[in-house]
Amino acid sequence: MTARKARIIPTSALKPGLATIILRLPGRTIRSCALMVQAQPQGGVQVAFASGDVLTLSARTMVGSIEQAPRSPQPPRTRSAS
């Protein structure tokens, strides 16, 4: 089982990547990766999600981010000679 690291961050701290972003909206929830994050001059942040949603959010909007923790290297498996 892969360990996951969950945290709450402001939209202004988002970076495109493989982390799953969770955003609760009235009537629906988006659970997707951010493909593009662009700061807007008016103080908003435009986010394009892998789900196809493109939203402009306040830079202070808080979102949940779930990242997979890096795996620790596993020792090589040995076979017994028979």
| Name of the level-1 CATH class | Mainly Beta
Q: Rg to the nearest angstrom?
A: 18 Å
The total beta strand count reads 6
The second-level CATH architecture is Roll
Write out the strand line-up for the largest beta sheet, numbering strands in chain order: 1-6-2-3-4-5
CA distance, first residue to last residue = 31 Å
Largest sheet, strands/sense/barrel? 6 strands, antiparallel
Low-confidence stretches: none
Structural class: mainly beta
Q: What is the average of the pLDDT values?
A: 82
The proportion of strand residues reads over 45%
Number of domains: 1
| CATH fold-type name | SH3 type barrels
Can you give a write-up of this model?
The chain has a 6-stranded antiparallel sheet with strand order 1-6-2-3-4-5, with no helix packed on it. The model has no long low-confidence stretch (mean pLDDT 82). It has a single domain (10-67), classed as Roll (SH3 type barrels). With 82 residues, it is mainly beta. Helix content is 0%, strand content 52%. It has no helices and 6 strands.
